[in-house]
Amino acid sequence: MEKKIENKVLADTIYFEIASNCNLHCIHCSDLYESKSNTFLDFAKVEKFIKNSSSNIFKNFIITGGEPFLHKNLENFIHLFSNYGNAIITTNGSIIEIPKLIDFLIKYQNLYIQISFDSLNENVFDKIRGKGTFAKVKSLINTLISVGFSNRIGLSMTLMQWNSNEYIPLIKYAIANKIGWVHFPQLVPIGRARKAWLTIAPSINEIIKIEEELLPYLSIDKKNDVNISVNRLERILNQLANDKSDCLNNLTLKIDTSGEILPCPISSNHNYSLGNICDEFIFSNTITKINKLENIRNSNKLIACDSCNYIDACHSNFCENCILLNEVQSEIASYGCSIHKHHLKNAYNVQNHD
User: Which of 101, 118, 125, 305 has the fewest CB atoms inside 10 Å of its own CB, making it the most exposed?
Assistant: First the structure.
């Protein structure tokens, strides 16, 4: 279900970053809270916010961080969110007490776990996430599969230079083990990923090839029970289908550890906050703020946009060129532009031949 706010759409999924700190230091981490380490979202404030909101607004509650398993009140969040919809925890999987997690999964039937699993190769995995992490995460996954929870597990792989040949093997692994879903999040130039961009981001041609090969797996007519999602491709497909690609017209909210309500799951700048969960937050009152954000972001179009045939489709608002996330670097913005234009050109060619 989606809620209309004038001409905007409020998605039924909301993110709660309950912990800023993490036990790992992954090379591609967005590292949103480098200057605000060891902060935790207050459960009582969240509980009040949720109960004051319409129970029909949100149906999927993403519990994230940092590393959410560092929050001492994690079960309170699970219990609260499971009363309204699905609770999905995103985790690096390296510090989980497995018996406790199994108890959670038994107790809360609408609890799901998305585990970061950036390589099937131990050496590559540990290069990305730190020595010894592969063994811990693989043990967690193996145990959850063995006790019958494979369909409530999701695996997340951010594609980089080091693992760029592993996307099909990961899908095959998930199918063989009846894993619930596989997610390929877009590598975003924020935090450590931004600093290491030139050494970790696949080339433009490489990521285009990967995403073209992944595209058939997004088909509704699936031959297996594993759901495959790819951030960039789904955004482009949504744009072509119903003009809801723009994140400020199709809002997915995030609550950070200080209770700020942000208009994007990967945003962290409080200058672009829509309010705070401690305030009397009325969704319809955010329109003025959203319009201001649109003006800020739209003033940051690339020079090439003036002569681009696809500007009305991408609006130049892809993550690599979003001023709401970062001060834009032309090289990285051009990277995202090239990939988007390629996919849009192919999509329009397919439409014109149908």
Answer: 305
